[in-house]
Design a protein that fits this description.
Protein name: Cell shape-determining protein MreB
Main location: cytoplasm
CATH class of the largest domain: Alpha Beta
Distance between the termini: 23 Å
Binding site for ATP: 17-19, 163-165, 211-214, 293-296
Shape: flat
Family: Belongs to the FtsA/MreB family. Belongs to the heat shock protein 70 family.
Bound molecules: adenosine-5'-triphosphate
Strand content: 25-35%
Subunit structure: Forms polymers.
Radius of gyration: 21 Å
Amino acid sequence: MGLFNWFTQEIAMDLGTANTLIIHNDQVAVNEPSIVALNRNNPKEVLAVGKRALMMHEKTHESIRTVRPLKDGVIADFNAAELMIRELIKLVYPKKPLFPPSWRMMICIPSSITEVEKRAVRDSAEQAGAKEVYLIHEPMAAALGIGIDVEEPVGNMIIDIGGGTTGITVIALAGIVCDQSIRIAGDEFTADIMEALRRYHSLLIGERTAEQIKIQIGAATKDLDNPPDDIPVNGRDLVTGIPKQIMVSYQEIAEALDKSIFKIEEAILKALEQTPPELASDIYRRGLYLTGGGALLRGLDKRLSQKIKLPVHIADDPLKSVVRGTGIALQNYDKYPFVMR
Ligand SMILES: Nc1ncnc2c1ncn2[C@@H]1O[C@H](COP(=O)(O)OP(=O)(O)OP(=O)(O)O)[C@@H](O)[C@H]1O
């Protein structure tokens, strides 16, 4: 082993709109929300990253700014992205090593990304200390993470419902055959919940509260087999301006999310229409694979399979399948033809 290899450490990163995960030595070493808190007076100074920054979100005073550097799966704030990546990599080694390693990084990117956006990911990683950067398209990473043999001559449809976007992709022979992406995903579900409580209960709530409601009782259908109990929700009364509490049921949330889920269903149907017939017949036999945090929405698999009339499988650990697949690609970076250098 050469001196260079000795100091080279490998990490695989799922740089997501909502969450960033890093695999190092086959372990998920970092799993943090994609958010950073910066000093407004010195934008190069990071005050907190990940969960700590999220706790500050929507509660800051004028000298702190919390930033989500990614929007719809791509870098929207280059400076914040670079600082966030740098701080998250530091979490891999909580104790500062004597000789800082040089990083070989595999990062997943949305398949619809432009060359300029791709450059921004590479530059951010290099600025954050990466010596070698490899890229992989998210649906390919998701498929590897789910355990699909992406190289066989069989079509598989992967639906990745993340924070900013839902990607619907057909994969065969180690390539992407068709690909659709819509900007309706977890963040839109959260916004739907905020809007419904404002409209029907005159209750103003923040993004974090809405996301918690979604996670605790969010549902894609009003007809769940194991319904969760109603939960109390605190916010500010729109009319009186005074804080108040109401009880919210999962049926109300299912109603609020209905339109967005309908749009996802429509996009899946459109993608199926565009799939070449031989691959469509594989998908008919195998069904669809659902991944990303949105796959955890109660009853979504049931609703989709009723609408599309195909089996729908939820990935084992939908929030981690992309990073696991990115890790697998990193181990085989010189072998897989779809890894981008
Ligand atoms: N139990 C749950 N029920 C419903 N939604 C959930 C649940 N857990 C997480 N989510 C949502 O999943 C989304 C995050 O998913 P994920 O980490 O796959 O996205 P991402 O990779 O960061 O986003 P993108 O792929 O758009 O870049 C968030 O909107 C989050 O609120």
